[in-house]
Design brief:
This protein is an alpha+beta fold. The chain folds into 2 domains: 50 residues, no CATH class; 160 residues, Umud Fragment, subunit A. It is 18% helix and 24% strand. Strands 1, 2, 3, 4, 9, 10, 11 and 12 form an 8-stranded antiparallel beta sheet that branches. The protein has a 4-stranded antiparallel beta sheet with strand order 7-6-5-8, with no helix packed on it. A hairpin with a 2-residue loop joins strand 6 and strand 7. 27% of the residues are buried.
Length: 231
């Protein structure tokens, strides 16, 4: 005769590690929170969404409003662009032609700016060649695809070598842009540290009629690597 006591249903349900107990505990915790919060589940849902958006804005993407006409005609005053804050993480670096948002404090002014990267560390940037074109590492760059109509690459001549870890940046609307050219005599020589870059502007998201992906122009593709660069 088998005299071993058989567990009852109550015994099984109370056994540590029984599937479903943890789920019920979490449900009870959520219920207690919603009972405590004014507005209950609606308030909790809004709070979770707010935290998610805050984390997204802090670490992944951030909207940026165009404050001036320095990047016309592609980017107009009042446009909203979506800045990819992960573009230069995990070892990636800004490339020539990228449109970047950066903190200009101590370099341009106490504000965030948006400009196009023209030169990266080691690049020799000259303006202008005999045909009035910007030249990077001895190769002329055809900027007509994005340069503001009627503008020249620069009315201010310059001949610079970009230090390692820095960027030479210009606005597309050269005649209405305060950029690296205007700060050559300032601390840092008008070159922005890569570490001050907030991210890359990847999309125009507002107004909706101008929704567009901002591609890196092909004009910089033929530019060779700076002398002494490896890889």
């Amino acid at each position: 005769m088998d005299t071993e006591a058989q567990p009852t249903e109550r015994d099984r349900s109370s056994h540590p590690g029984t599937p479903g107990r943890e789920g019920r505990s979490r449900f009870a915790l959520v219920s207690r929170i919603t009972d405590w919060l004014p507005g209950g589940r609606i308030t909790l849902t809004l709070f979770v969404c707010l935290v998610f958006l805050l984390l997204l804005n802090t670490f992944v993407t951030q909207p940026f409003q165009i404050p001036s006409g320095s990047m016309e005609q592609r980017l107009r005053i009042g446009d909203r662009v979506l800045v990819n804050k992960l573009a230069y993480r995990f070892g990636a670096q800004p490339s020539r032609g990228d449109v970047v948002v950066f903190d200009g404090t101590g370099y341009f002014g106490d504000a965030d700016y948006i400009k196009r990267v023209v030169g990266v560390g080691g690049d020799h940037v000259v303006c202008c060649d005999k045909e009035g074109r910007l030249e990077v590492n001895g190769r002329p760059v055809d900027e007509t695809a994005f340069l503001y109509p009627g503008d020249t690459p620069s009315t201010v001549p310059f001949d610079v070598v970009v230090p390692a870890g820095r960027l030479f940046v210009l606005g597309d609307h050269r005649s209405d842009s305060s950029d690296s050219r205007d700060h050559l005599g300032s601390p840092g020589g008008g070159m922005i540290p890569v570490g001050e870059v907030i991210g890359r502007a990847d999309w125009i998201i507002w107004p909706y009629a101008r929704f567009e992906h901002l591609h890196r122009p092909a004009a910089y593709a033929p530019v060779p690597a700076p002398e002494g660069a490896h890889g």
